[in-house]
Q: What sequence folds into this?
């Protein structure tokens, strides 16, 4: 007789994947993940606006919520429980250095190191998240292999800066016309230059450039110890089991909470070499949101999608 | 565990055929993808070159789970003398290619489990899965280079499975 179901033991997983999506700071709107609708997404190609940060290691969750008992009677005995506070922290290590992983691994503003004297070329209409249309003259100034930042000129605005991903908060106006491109998350590697277009190796994190955006060459990325700005992202961490079951940890609002810190992991066993892999340590503080389902304040969702035919 | 072992072998065989259709062996009058199970063939006086030989070693079980987890240690042995065109001077390159192909066909690290004792084969409910391979150093025996990789294969026992 053919079995139609099985008792599934605890999930066996090899690695954890991380996905982040920008919180709209001006509107205080995080990105919510619905496992019932989106839970079976292709792990290599997450649904927009989630950005795939790849595999991470040493993923650890820590609940900081506190409960206490209300006692009554003589002698006193617990009558009810109340939640005194809610909170959570997440820590992990990124295995790759990218614009986003580096920014997420520091509780400070993250900046693009603009090449001195690099001109800002106007992006033409018809551009997409992977193709930047320029004038032929401007395109000739770029070459495959360059890293570029794409965003608007700074025009003296204050408040949250960066379109559509917030990269800074300004209390007072500055005079640096390149400031928005200095802090933007719209960065990418030029894979090819054809005629009047730059073709990027990966889509811009913020999608197609807004009207009026300009593109400028950058050399790399910089963060600082200090400052007062904290990034805020929605986080999604996925463990896929060997039977294709999935465990999701969704934090609608995460802010990096530790200064930039790295760990050096030996490539070979002890005594077999001195090469070390430098990984980015990241620690996040989870902030609360109001669940639209019942108006409860929460900081995290844990979801489980069982394997096919597994007893539940 | 037999279903798991069969499913693991068939998964690797199909992946190898898709990856490198030229890696074949003529065995018992038939040209097959270049991977075989040692205990399912007549004994070899010398292991054939340029193919993968699957050898089953240790066995274990964890019976304290909702479904019993069985494990079998697998050793995949392969060797090459290079090709005649280059007088065997390419045997290092040939072994490197076999290393890469083995790593490629082992991914993803899971495969559907089938019962191949029925005709046609019956799809079972769970998947077989395995850990990353541990490669041994290459061994030179005259003009032959060999290597092996060990993999731990796991499977949940389903109702009615032996």
A:
């Amino acid at each position: 007789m053919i079995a139609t179901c099985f008792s599934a033991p605890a999930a066996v997983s090899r690695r954890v994947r991380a996905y982040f999506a920008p919180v709209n700071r001006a509107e205080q709107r995080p990105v919510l993940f619905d496992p019932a609708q989106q839970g079976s997404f292709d792990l290599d190609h997450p649904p927009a606006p989630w950005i795939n940060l790849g595999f991470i290691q040493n993923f650890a969750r820590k609940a900081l919520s506190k409960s206490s008992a209300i006692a009554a009677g003589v002698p006193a005995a617990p009558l009810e429980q109340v939640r005194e506070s809610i909170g959570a922290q997440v820590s992990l290590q990124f295995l790759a250095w990218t614009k986003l992983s580096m920014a997420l691994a520091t509780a400070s503003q993250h900046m693009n190191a603009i090449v001195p004297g690099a001109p800002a070329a106007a992006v033409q209409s018809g551009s997409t998240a992977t193709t930047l249309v320029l004038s032929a003259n401007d395109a000739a100034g770029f070459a495959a292999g360059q890293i570029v930042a794409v965003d608007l000129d700074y025009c003296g605005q204050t408040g949250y800066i960066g379109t559509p991903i917030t990269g800074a908060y300004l209390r007072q106006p500055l005079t640096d016309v390149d400031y928005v491109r200095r802090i933007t998350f719209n960065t990418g590697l030029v894979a090819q230059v054809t005629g009047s277009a730059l073709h990027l190796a990966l889509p811009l994190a913020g999608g197609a450039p807004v009207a009026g955006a300009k593109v400028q060459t950058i050399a790399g990325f910089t963060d600082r110890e200090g400052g007062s700005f904290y990034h805020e992202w929605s986080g999604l961490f996925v463990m896929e089991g060997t039977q294709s079951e999935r465990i999701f940890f969704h934090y609608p609002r995460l802010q990096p909470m530790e200064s930039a810190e790295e760990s050096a992991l030996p490539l070979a066993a002890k005594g077999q070499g001195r090469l070390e892999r430098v990984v980015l340590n990241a620690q996040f503080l989870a902030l609360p949101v109001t669940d639209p389902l019942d108006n409860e304040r929460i900081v995290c969702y844990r979801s489980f999608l069982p394997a096919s035919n597994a007893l539940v | 565990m037999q279903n798991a072992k069969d499913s693991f072998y068939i998964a690797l065989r199909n992946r190898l055929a898709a990856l490198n259709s030229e890696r074949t062996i003529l065995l018992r009058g038939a040209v097959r993808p270049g991977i075989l199970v040692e205990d399912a063939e007549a004994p070899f006086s010398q292991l054939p070159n340029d193919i993968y030989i699957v050898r089953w070693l240790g066995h274990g079980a964890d019976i304290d789970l909702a479904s019993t987890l069985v494990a079998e240690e697998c050793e995949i042995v392969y060797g090459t003398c290079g090709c005649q065109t280059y007088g065997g001077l390419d045997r290092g390159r040939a072994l490197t290619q076999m290393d890469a192909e083995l790593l490629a066909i082992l991914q993803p690290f899971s495969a559907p489990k089938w019962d191949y004792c029925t005709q046609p084969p019956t799809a079972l409910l769970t998947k077989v899965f395995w850990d990353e391979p541990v490669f041994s150093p290459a061994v030179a025996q005259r003009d032959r280079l060999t290597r092996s990789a060990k993999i731990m294969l796991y499977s949940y026992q389903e109702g009615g499975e032996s």
Remarks:
- The interface with chain A takes residues 65-67, 69, 109-110, 122, 124-127, 129, 154, 156, 158-160 of chain B (CB under 8 Å).
- DSSP finds two helices and ten strands in chain B.
- The two ends of chain B are 7 Å apart (CA to CA).
